[in-house]
Amino acid sequence: MNIIPTIGWESPDPVPDGYRFNEYLHVRNGHLFYEDLDLAALFLNDGTSPLSVPLASPLELVYLPKIRDKIRYLQDVFARAIIEQEYTGRFYYAYASKANAAEEVIRTTLGAGIHHEMSSTVDVDIVRLMIQRGYITPDQMIIANGFKMAGMPYSRNLIQLKREYPDYRIIPVIENLAELPPLIESGLPFEVGLRQKSYGKHPNVAAMDFANSRFGLTIGEIWDAAEMIAQSPNLTLRLYHGMVGSQLTDPQDFVERLTPPLEVFAQLREEFPTLTIFDFGGGVPVGLTLDFDFDYYEFAIRLLQAIQVLCARYNIPEPDIMGEMGRYTVAEHGAHLFRVLLVKDNNSPLPWYIIDGSIMSSFPDTWALGEHFIVLPLNHLDKPFRRVQLGGLTCDSDDVYPPKGSEAELWLPVETENLYIGFFAVGAYQEMLGGVGGSKHCVIPEANELIVDRNPDGSYSFELFVGQAPEDVLDNPDIAKPCQPVQA
Fold it and tell me: What does the CA dihedral 208, 212, 213, 214 come to, rounded to 10 degrees?
């Protein structure tokens, strides 16, 4: 069945005062609030701005308290499920940093005391900085996924990081057998993880070998790697990683996908008692649209029950569980706010609302994957609405929203004077994919960025980072750089 996502208000009627779109977006006096923050007031010169002066559009909003809320919520869910099931293992929350590697995001996740997952040599440099600044402590695990063959900078950098900080728990997760020799030859005491080739849903253990995935080890390689680690005096097999999908929105389906990897874990645990952590990777979903519905507690209960069944069958202890939450952790903390510049009827089926920025540059997934995000007006919510289509400033036919081919309905106020709108739940991947500090499509400069946090007394604190000016774009070496002659 083709489910049409709900991306905003879907009615010609004004939005009732006090209406809640989701847990963090609600309406008050015709304005949209993110928790207690009046978003329209950031731009309006009417004395209501929480800042000393109104801000210019477009604006990237970074709302750090939401990151901590998401972490606490899922930790509480698993804590309750562990008590309910009388489960004897622990739950470890790790942040998958590829979702958003901004400094303010990394320090917020680490400051929440959770563990850290990374996947490149630059990630190692980021971890080194975070250790030096006191954001990572020795009891926080650093999970190193990704390809790290002998001779690659990533492999060398990981080993150097362990040499510099021997007391820190740096856990390389093996993708290929050739990744083990550099760790063995280093002589350094590493805890090690193994990644199973298990992406997707498979009926049994053997079928995982045929997964169409470039990541992970086959069944035979898993056992070979475990033996190599056991025979290496400086390595300890600690973690098994079984990634099965992304944005999995059915708890039963999620756990069914994890069942074959869980069986491999149980078989390995029989033979290698140092293996104590089952890492299910990512996949925990988050609400990118307003029709999102996922029972996190049901997922946690089903997962613990499935593990308990297998542990009883194989007569092994119940393992600690780790999840690597990227999109779930940071999607909802990010928003992009725009002003509607003009309206063009243009003999189109729906009027075009043109915004002062680029949709496809700011949210590459809308045109690359047809992804949907929440779009709501920041003001005039107490006025009548009509169905519209959005266009960005670039000269590209894909710079539109809803995405081409989408049947989702977008309704915005008929009143467009000083109308501001926001794209929400865009804090994961979009900025990373669109590039930071570089040159965008049609060389449109990056927007200003407002970082919002809470003080100990609950009041807001703000940091404004100025975006790109035209001269910043011109200073980019990829733009207008002189040609360098080369010898034939």
Answer: 120
